[in-house]
Amino acid sequence: MQFGAVWAADCSYLLTDWGKKVGREVTADDVEILTWGLAELGKAVTAAQLVEAVTEAMKANRIAAAWWDEDGDGFDLLLTPTLGEPSVTHGTFDSTPEEPLSGFFRAASFVPFTAQFNVSGQPGISLPMHWNDDGLPIGSQLVAAFGREDLLLQVAAQLETAQPWADRRPPVFA
Q1: Which residues of 85-116 are buried (b: 16+ CB within 10 A; e: fewer)?
Q2: Alpha-carbon distance 77 to 63, whole Å?
Q3: Is it the case that residue 70 has pLDDT exceeding 70?
Q4: Residue 169 to residue 174: CA distance in whole angstroms
Q5: What 3-state DSSP class applies to 69?
Q6: Extents of the domains making up the chain
Q7: Cα 138 to Cα 128: distance, rounded to the nearest angstrom
Q8: Residue 69, pLDDT score
Q9: What predicted TM-score, i.e. pTM, was given to this entire model?
Q10: What percent of the chain is predicted at pLDDT more than 90?
Q11: Long-range contacts of 64-72 (CB under 8 A, 24+ apart)
């Protein structure tokens, strides 16, 4: 779980950094249970584990970049669902003091199509191309090669023209 090691180490660093900014140590009472659990887990990540995780992420980034080969043998866009399941109710990802990482692990099954592009830094866009029986949007994710945000925006504009969504609202929204 390379992603988890990097995420936890980063969370630990960020809480330490915020402590310096506010002039006192950040405690469990200052943050959500999941944030504290990740930060505590991050304290246990060794330098060697962090370097290994970052190295593996860089390898994965190079593999992803090669998929969009600029010589014309690759692809312009990748189409995936945005989420792994329909929208969930508020509180689905809450953690408890007894299981502080439960929300993190539950969320992993919810976002299996987006995390790798958050890590790689490739541009992606989620578009509401379908609605379920409850009137909630179902997202379609498009991912492009590094630096090709222009292509994503062009295609998104064409899709919105073909299937407008600006005036659609789910039954309950804020």
Answers
A1: eeeeeeeeeebeeeebbbbbebeeebeebbeb
A2: 15
A3: no
A4: 10
A5: coil
A6: 1-67, 69-169
A7: 6
A8: 67
A9: 0.78
A10: 53
A11: 64/116, 64/117, 64/120, 64/122, 65/120, 65/122, 65/145, 65/146, 68/144, 68/145, 68/146, 68/148, 70/145
- The answer to whether the beta carbons of residues 28 and 36 sit under 8 Å apart is yes
Residue 71 has pLDDT above 70, yes or no: no
Nearest CA-CA partner of 117 in 74, 60, 68, 70:
60
| Residue whose tokens read 């506010």 | 22
| Interval 85-139: pLDDT, tens | 888 888 888 888 899 889 888 888 898 999 888 878 889 999 999 998 888 889 9
Residue listed under structure tokens 């246990």: 44
Sheet holding 137-144, edge to edge: 77-81, 137-144, 124-131
Give dist(CA 81, CA 18) in Å, integer: 35
Q: At what angle do helices 2-22 and 47-67 cross, to 10 degrees?
A: 120
Quick check: 125 and 156 in contact, CB under 8 A?
yes
Q: 42 falls in which pLDDT band (50, 70, 90)?
A: very high
Can you tell me the distance from the alpha carbon of 6 to that of 75, in angstroms, rounded to the nearest whole number?
29
